[in-house]
Amino acid sequence: MKALTYHGPGRRTWGEVPDPVVRDPEDAVVRVDAVTICGTDLHILKGDVPEVTEGRVLGHEAVGTVTETGSGVRTVAAGDRVLVSCISACGRCSYCRAAGYGQCTGGGGWILGHLVDGCQAEYVRTPFADTSLHRLPEDVTDEDALLLADILPTSYEVGVRNGRVGPGDTVVIVGAGPIGLAAILTARLYSPARIIAVDLAQNRLDAAERFGADTALTAADATPEALRELSRDGLGADVAIEAVGVPDSFELCTRAVRPGGRVANVGVHGKPAVLHLEELWIRDVTITTGLVDTHSTPMLLDMLAAGRLDVAGLVTHRFGLDEMQEAYDVFADAGGNDALKVALFRT
């Protein structure tokens, strides 16, 4: 089969690799019908994730059809249309038993495209199929379901829920890429009084307003003082969600939040950020980090099927699977291409 493989910083190849096979009784092999590229994949290609070894098939977000299962798989079968979650869960360790699947100690967590071969391929082996695949309703499209593999549960769990967004809150979201836009979409479920989006690119700020941001500011205009002035009493945001993964955006969040506020870091950081404890210690600010657990995926899938989550517009560019290299080029230059999420489909 063909797959996208990593060969060190800045080097990737779309070419032939061995077909995946069932190795463990709990495995399934899935034919990839739709797949996408994540900002984390770009971090890997920059060399920010040293655990990814040369030759690794990248990708951790896909929709597909089960072609084979191990003898221990009970809840999915060949022919089932499934969502491949970005997180794999053994289902037995103490973290999994508490729905903390991202921290699985039984061989799961974020492994696809990281520690084992991933989804940017014609087929993928998925460990722990019973607890890591989700059967899809017929009326949910491949494209819409693809957004539940990572960005929607990540934004919801690591951003909105960790930040404890509530009714009447002022929410600042720094970064209006796919994660930031998904954070806007899911923050609205909790009726905040105001959502303020910050980004460098005007097309992303326009998208933020389409997805429900009340105010969209360029990074140059979004000074801590300006953000505080937009809050209900001038003290700052109740919640600041960092959705970029660079030091400046994290530090802006810590300065834009009010005393007693919450900073929820979602972005993947490749460089150290300064933590100004000399300023923060007295302000009762809570800072959270996190890898998504995907415990919310079934709920979000139900909402999507019921028409309660409008994800139209998040995918801006579509390709065939064999156009993987072009899709990477477009996504890597998202600003120049007005790209949000890209999707690739089996043709």
Describe this structure in words.
This protein is an alpha/beta fold and 347 residues long. It has two domains: 2-150 and 293-345, Medium-chain alcohol dehydrogenases, catalytic domain (Quinone Oxidoreductase, Chain A, domain 1, Alpha-Beta Complex), CATH 3.90.180; 155-288, NAD(P)-binding Rossmann-like Domain (Rossmann fold, 3-Layer(aba) Sandwich). The protein contains 13 helices and 15 strands. It has helices at 39-46, 94-97, 129-132, 142-146, 151-161, 178-187, 202-210, 224-229, 247-256, 277-280, 297-305, 324-332, 334-337; strands at residues 2-6, 12-16, 28-36, 62-69, 81-84, 123-126, 133-135, 170-174, 194-199, 215-218, 237-242, 257-265, 286-288, 315-320, 341-345. Helix 5 (151-161) packs across helix 6. The model has no long low-confidence stretch (mean pLDDT 97).
CATH H-tier superfamily of the largest domain: Medium-chain alcohol dehydrogenases, catalytic domain
**Unreliable runs, pLDDT <50, ≥5 residues?**
none
Biggest sheet descriptor: 7 strands, mixed
Distance between the termini: 14 Å
The CATH topology of the largest domain is given as Quinone Oxidoreductase, Chain A, domain 1
How many β-strand stretches?
15
| CATH top level assignment of the largest domain | Alpha Beta
How many independent structural domains? 2
Radius of gyration: 20 Å
Q: If you average the pLDDT, what whole number results?
A: 97
Number of DSSP helical runs: 13
What class, by secondary structure content? alpha/beta
CATH architectural name of the largest domain: Alpha-Beta Complex
Order of helices and strands: EEEHEEHEHEHHEHEHEHEHEHEHEHHE
